[in-house]
Amino acid sequence: MKCRICRAKAIISLPQHNLALCAEHFDAWMLKRVTKAIEEFGMFSKEDKILVAVSGGKDSLALWDILLRLGYDSSGLYINLGIKEGDYSDESERLTTAFANRANAKLYVVNIEQLHGMSIPDKAYTKKRKTCSLCGVTKRYYMNKIARDMGFDVIATGHNLDDQAAALLGNMLFWKMDYLAKGAPYSPPMKAGEFAKAKPMVYCTEKEDTVYCLLRGIAYIERECPYSKGATSLRWKRALFEMEESSPGAKQAFYFGYVKNIDLFAGKDEKEDVPPLTCRVCGTPSWNEVCSFCSTWDLHVDEI
Ligand code: Q46
Ligand code: ZN
Ligand code: ZN
Q: tRNA(Ile)-lysidine/2-thiocytidine synthase N-terminal domain: which residues (predicted)?
């Protein structure tokens, strides 16, 4: 297998693009894929301040590395969830911090246990809630809070094509119209002075992100979060993997065909407007008098 550009030995084959590339040309190709997403969806410019949500995994570290190399003003945010199994959270933090130090980039770290006296799994247990749902509310809150408090223009996450296509498949199977209305790779700010949300890795797959990290010598946490076992999204990923094996390019056609036609779902999401209230406790935009984060963590006015 030879690189289509220089005929040197290829290190990756990309059947969905009818392409094989050597290390050097694959690296350049990844930068181009991310640039394509940023430009096509008008995600941000070199003047914007970007907050990259980093988990210590391959996708978010690859994203941060690529944004820094492309000259974007990007800082990282790591949220330590306090997951003890396999030292998962502390190991992810260590790898994220090592990357930030090596890249000489600014990293914000939020430690849930230090801030709230309890880890995400322990809090979920005491509240009789699913760990992932409590985790989602908490991560969203801190991402938004840091972005707002520190004046970032955009929050960028490492979601790749496999993530987006799997979420789309799940939402289509059950016709979740509210989610189908907001599966685009970019959401503009809800109002002036707020921040946008962007997924610049949307043209890259998990395999490509893995190879990129290996070539760049980026150490990342290889284990998945222990709470992701049995997640339905893994089922959809497996189904899409099989489709992709027999029809290379199917995944990309599926997701970007949807993005092109996303207006079909506009107006079907009851909650697509700006939240009408302000949380009585923390003051963030909210659908109820007390936002889901403050009620989850049992916060009262004098505690924030
Ligand atoms: S939600 Fe659930 Fe993830 Fe949180 S507890 Fe782990 S698997 S990290 S994206
Ligand atoms: Zn080459
Ligand atoms: Zn609140």
A: 49-170
Q: Whose CA is nearest to atom 2 of ligand 1?
A: 132
150 and 299, same domain (yes or no): no
Residue 119 lies in a domain: yes
Please provide the average confidence, as pLDDT, over all residues in the chain.
Answer: 95
* Same structural domain, 196 and 284: no
- The confidence band for 273, taking pLDDT boundaries of 50, 70 and 90, is low
Is 10 domain-assigned? no
Return the ligand number nearest the Cα of 291.
3
Looking at the structure, do residues 167 and 190 belong to the same domain, yes or no? yes
CB 299, CB 280: distance < 8 Å? no
How many domains are contained in the chain?
A: 2
238 is in which domain, residue-wise?
A: 30-271
Q: What is the pLDDT of residues 212-247, one digit of tens each?
A: 999 999 999 999 999 998 899 999 999 999 999 999
Pocket test for ligand 1, best of 225, 229, 233, 296 (most atoms within 8 A of CB): 225
Same domain flag for 207 and 295:
no
- Supply the residue whose CA is at minimum distance from atom 5 of ligand 1: 132
Give the pLDDT confidence score for residue 270 in this predicted structure: 53
With CA atoms as reference, report the closest residue to 82 among 53, 138, 47, 120: 120
What's 248-281 look like in SS3?
CCHHHHHHHHHHHCHHHHCCCCCCCCCCCEECCC
CATH code assigned at 109: 3.40.50.620
ipTM above 0.85, yes or no: yes
**Per-residue pLDDT at 302:** 66
DSSP summary character for residue 128: T
**In which residue are the tokens 């974007």 written?**
72
